[in-house]
Write a structure and sequence with these properties.
The structure holds 2 protein chains of 2 kinds. Chain A is α/β, with parallel strands linked by helices. Chain A folds into 2 domains: about 180 residues, Rossmann fold (3-Layer(aba) Sandwich), CATH 3.40.50.300; about 120 residues, abc- transporter (atp binding component) like domain (Coagulation Factor XIII, Chain A, domain 1), CATH 2.70.50.60. Chain A has 8 helices and 20 strands. Chain B is an all-alpha fold. Chain B is built from 14 helices and 1 strand, in the order βαααααααααααααα. Classes of the chains: A alpha/beta, B mainly alpha.
Chain lengths: ~425, ~280
Amino acid sequence: MSEVILKVENINKQYRLGTVGTGTLSHDLNRFWHKIRGKEDPYLKVGTVNDRSKKASSDYVWALRDINFEVKRGEILGIIGKNGAGKSTLLKILSRVTAPTTGSIKTKGRIASLLEVGTGMHPELTGRENIYLNGAILGMTKAEIASKLEEIVDFSGCEMYIDTPVKRYSSGMRVRLGFAVAAFLEPDILVVDEVLAVGDAEFQKKAIGKMKDISNTTGRTVLFVSHNMGAIRDLCTRAIVIENGILRFDGSTNDSVSHYLSSNSHSEEDLASRTDRLGNQAIKLKKVRIVDTNERSIEAIGPFDPFSIVFEYERDTSIEIKKLLISIQIIDANQNIIAAFPSDEYCYDFNTNSNSFRLNIEMMNFRSSSYTINFLSFDTTTETLNYIDRIDNVFTFTVLNTKMHTEGRLARPGSGVLLKAKFSD
Amino acid sequence: MKSDNWLYEIKPKGKFIDLNLKEIWRYRDLLILFVKRDIVTVYKQTVLGPLWFLIQPLFTGVIFTLVFNKLGGINTYGVPSFLFNLSGITLWSYFKESLSTTSKTFLTNSSLFGKVYFPRVIAPASKVLSGLLKYVIQLGIFFVFYLFFLWNGEDLQLGPYWYLLPIPVFSVAMLGLGVGMILSSLTTKYRDLSILIDFGIQLLMYISAVMYSLQFASEELGEYAWVVTYNPLAQLIELYRNMLLDVGQDSLWQLLIAVVVSIATLFVGLVIFNRTEKTFIDTV
C-alpha cells in the first residue's frame, strides 16, 4: 500500500496573458534566437504570481509554480483551491492534455481523467455506438468495452434509449451515459474534476459511491478536485491546497480543509463602499468575519463547533443614537430567516463608543448548506422603526457536513436543523 | 523504496523524434471507431446517403469535360476525356480531402483534445483512412465507366505498371497527411494559414495535372512548365493516370522521387505535429 505511484517534481506552467498577435511572433523569434545560441528561454525568468485580482506586471503568468508531491497507491487525494488557483491546470498536466513548462511527472500507472464526462460523443450516433467511441477515447479497447457493456448500460440507467441517437437525449442522460463509461474504466489512477456538480441527486449519490468503491475494493488511486468540502472530507484520505499556483499545504484531509477555509476568508471585502443600505448611517457596518475559537478567520463551520461573528463598524458621532438595537439574521439559500438575534432578546446594551462587537454562537446545528447574514440596526426610542443601518448579505458562510454518530453516514445536505438524538428499542 | 520502473514520464518537450508507436498500437480500436464514425455520420439524415460519394466525382467529371476538353480543347491523347478527367479527379479529391481535413485537426478537435489524452496522430490518421474508403468506392465507379467505354468499342488498356497502382495512392495519402499535419500545427497559433489553405488548395488543383497530362503541359507551357513538373503531386497523378489509362509518362524514376518526397513530407509532418500536440491547447 505504501508504494509511490505518482511523483510530481517541480512542475511549473507558464501562460501568456492577453491575446496572440504580432507580439507573439516576435517573442517566438526571440525564443528561437536564444535557443539556437544554446541560451535559456528569456521568458522563463519573467512571469508574475497567479493572483487574478491583481494587475499583472508582465506578459507571462505562472499558473503553477514549483509543485511537488507524491501519491501512494490506493490513496484518494483531494485537491483544494479557489477558482483560478491552478487546480485544473494541474489536472490537465496530469492527464497529459498539456505539457508542463518545466518539471516532470513520473507515474507507474495509467492515468485516466474525468475532466468532463461524455467527451467526444457524437450526437448522430446511438447510445451504444457512443459507449464504444467514448470508451475508446478514454483508452479502452473494443474487447474491454464489449465485456462491460451490460454493466455500463445498467449503471447509466438509459437502457430504453440505448439505440437512439444521443442528440435526442436530455443533457442529464448524456452525463449519465458519459459517467457510466468512465466509471468502468480501469486505470490505475483516476482523475476526477467536479463531475459531481452535474446530474440529479440520485445520480450524484451513485457516482460518489462508485468512486469510493473504486478505491476501496480495487486499491486504485483517485485524484479528486472539488469545491464541496463535505465531499472532500467524506472521500479523501489526504488533501493538498493550491493557492495562486503554489502548493500551500499538504496533509490530512481535515487539516487541509481547515487550512483552505481559513485562508479563503472574505474578511477583506469592503462593506463600507456598498450603497444598497438603509438608515441614517449613525453607525456604518464596515467589516464582518467569522472566527473560530483560535481567532482564525474562517468561512465554513461545523454544525456543532462554537464560533463568533465579529462586526466592525464606524460611528458617526454627529448623529445621536438614543437606544441602539441590533438584529442579526441568518438567511438560507431560499431567503428564509432561519435564525435571528435581536440584541434586546439577548439582553445586550451596546457601548455606542466602541467600534466593534461580537456575536458568540455555541453551535449552528443546521444541515449542510450555505447561509448569509443580514445586519439590521435601529434606534428604538419611538414606536416606528428608524433604521440606523441596514445591509443585507454582509457575509456568506457554509455549514459543513457532519456525521451524527461516528459510525453513521454523513448527514444529507439541505434545510432544517440537526438535533442530537439517538434511536433505541 | 524502489522507484525506478516508472511506466512513463510527463515532461515539457519529448525527444526530437518521439513517435510512440507502441501507444498508437494500443489505441488502434479508437482509430477504427473514428473511421467508422466519419463514414457513418457524414450523410446521416440525407436522402441520397452514400450516393453522395459517387455524385461528387461524376458531376465534376462532366463539368471538367465540358469546360476543359470541349471548350478549352485540352488534348487527352485518344483517351475518352470523361474517363481521363474522372481518373484524375478520384486521386485529386482524395488528396484534397486528406489535406483539408487533417489541416484542421487541432481546430476542430480542440474541445476533445482539451479534455482527454490519446495519441493525437489518431485523429488525422483516421481522416486519411476514411478518405481511403471513399476513394476506393470512387475507383469502383471509375471502373464501371471504364468497362462501359470498353463495351462501346473504345480502345482502352491499362498502363505497363498497372500493378503499382497502390503506390501513387499511398504516396498521395502520405503527402496530404504530411502537409496537413504541418499546417494544422502552424494554425494553432497563427490562424492566417487556415485562410490560406482553402484558397491554396483551389489553386493547387490547376497545377497538379488533374485535367491535363504532364506531356500536354510541357508542350504548351514551354519555359513555365516547371510550375507543373516540379510539383510532386502532378507527377503522382500523371503516373497514376498512366497506370489506369496508359496515357502520358510512365517513368519509374519519377515515381521513386515522388514517393521519397511524400515520405519525407510525412516525416516532417509527424515531427512538427508531435511537438505541437503537447501544448497546443494553451494557444489554440
